[in-house]
Amino acid sequence: MFEKQWFSEASQEGLSNDALIFEKEISKRNIDKCLNIIKNSNSKNTDYWKRMEKRLKNISKRKKKYILTGVKPPIFLMWEGFWPDMNSKDCQILDFLKESLPDEEFLVTNNSGKADILISSCLGRNNPISRKYNHCFKILFLGENLRPYFSNYDLSISSDINTYRGRNIYLPLWLFEIDLFKRGQDYPDRKVYNINNFCKSRIIDFSKRESGIVYIGNNSEPFRESIIQEIQDNKIKIDRFGSHTKPIKDKISLISKYKGTLAMENSIYPGYITEKGMHAFLGGSKTIYWGSREYSPFNDHPLFVNINPDQSYDLILDKVLSITNENNKVFVPALLEENKVLNFKNEIIAKMKKSLSQFIL
C-alpha cells in the first residue's frame, strides 16, 4: 500500500473537526459524548465512524473490567509490518510508550482480538487495515519518507515535522542512535550510543587517515549514484560497502579510517533525517551530506559539507577533493546539546501520553 501514495478524499477523515473532537473526548473517557459525535456525524466515510464505535466499545470494556475486578487490565500491543529483527518486547518505540504511561502495564500479544493498540509500519505483507483491528487504537510508525493515512490510523509517529492537527508525532530516526533511556546496552535490532558521544568536542588528526571516501549503503538512489560515479570517473578513491554487497561488522570503525564519507538520505523531505549523519559524526570523517536542512543537527557543523542537486558536479567534486586532501589536526565541536535532546525526548513522551491517555484507568 506504500509503493505509490495517492490519497482519496476519504483517506484523511481523521483530520476532520468531528474526528479531532472525538479523540479529545475519548482521551477523557467521555463515552456518552463520543457516542453523540458518532451518532451526529454527517460524514460519507461511514466505515471510519463504525471503526470509532468499535474503539469506543473496547475502551468501555476495559473500564468495566477494572470496575468489576479492581485490577487494572494491561494494555495489549500488537505489532505488524516491521523489519525482521525488530524485537517487539524490547525496542525503542516500546520504551517511549512505557515512559509515556509509566503506571500502566504493556504486554505484547499475537491475538488481534485481544489487542488494544496496533502498531504497524510499512514493511511486510500483513494488512494492518484489516477489519480485525478495527477495535484497536492504531499507530503508524514511519521510518521512511512517507505520509500517513488518517482514516486507517489514529496516530502517526514519523519523520514528518508537520503535526497534522495533532495526529502526528515527529520522531526522526537519528534520535534512535542515542541511548535515550540509559539502558547501557544495545537493542536486539540496533546499537545505541551514550549521549556524551555526541555532546563533546574533540581533535581529529586527518593526516593519519586514508586519503579517500567511504560509502556504506545499498540503495542506488539516482542522485547518490551520480555523485559516486562522478567521484570514480575523476579518479578519486571511493570504497563502497553494504550489507547486500560487501558487509561490514563495525560501521563506525570503518568510517574512522577514512578522511571522508558519503552520507546521503534515500530522499529529501523536511525533517526526514536518518542515522547516516550520526554514524558519520561518530566515525569522525568529513562528510558529504545530502538531506533535509530543516531540524537537522548537521547544519553549520564543520564536519559536514551539505550538497544540493542544483549544484554543479564540478563544485561538488571540489568539495570532495578538499576533504581527501585534508592533512591537518581539526577541532570538531559537539554535534548536540544534551539538554536540548532530552527536552526533545520529553516533548515526544508528553505528546504520546496525550494520545494514549484514553487507556489510563
Report on this model:
The structure is a single chain. With 361 residues, the chain is an alpha/beta fold. The chain folds into two domains: 9-171 and 344-359, Rossmann fold (3-Layer(aba) Sandwich), CATH 3.40.50; 200-335, Rossmann fold (3-Layer(aba) Sandwich), CATH 3.40.50.11660. Helix content is 30%, strand content 17%. The protein has nine helices and 13 strands. It has helices at 17-27, 31-40, 46-69, 92-100, 222-233, 251-255, 276-283, 313-324, 338-356; strands at 75-80, 106-108, 117-120, 137-142, 155-158, 168-170, 202-205, 210-216, 238-241, 258-264, 286-290, 304-306, 329-332. The protein has a six-stranded parallel β-sheet, with helices on one face. A five-stranded parallel β-sheet has the order 9-8-10-11-12. Strand 10 (258-264), helix 7 and strand 11 form a beta-alpha-beta unit. Helix 1 (17-27) packs antiparallel against helix 2 (31-40). The relative contact order is 0.13.
What Rg do the Cα atoms give? 23 Å
Strand content: 15-25%
Gross morphology: elongated
Known CATH architecture of the largest domain? 3-Layer(aba) Sandwich
What's the CATH superfamily of the largest domain, by name?
Glycosyl transferase family 10, N-terminal domain
Strand order of the largest sheet: 2-1-3-4-5-6
What would you call the quaternary organization?
single chain
CATH class category label of the largest domain:
Alpha Beta
CATH fold topology of the largest domain: Rossmann fold
Secondary-structure element pattern, one letter each: HHHEHEEEEEEEHEHEHEEHEH
Compute the number of strand runs: 13
The major beta sheet can be summarized as:
6 strands, parallel
Number of helices: 9
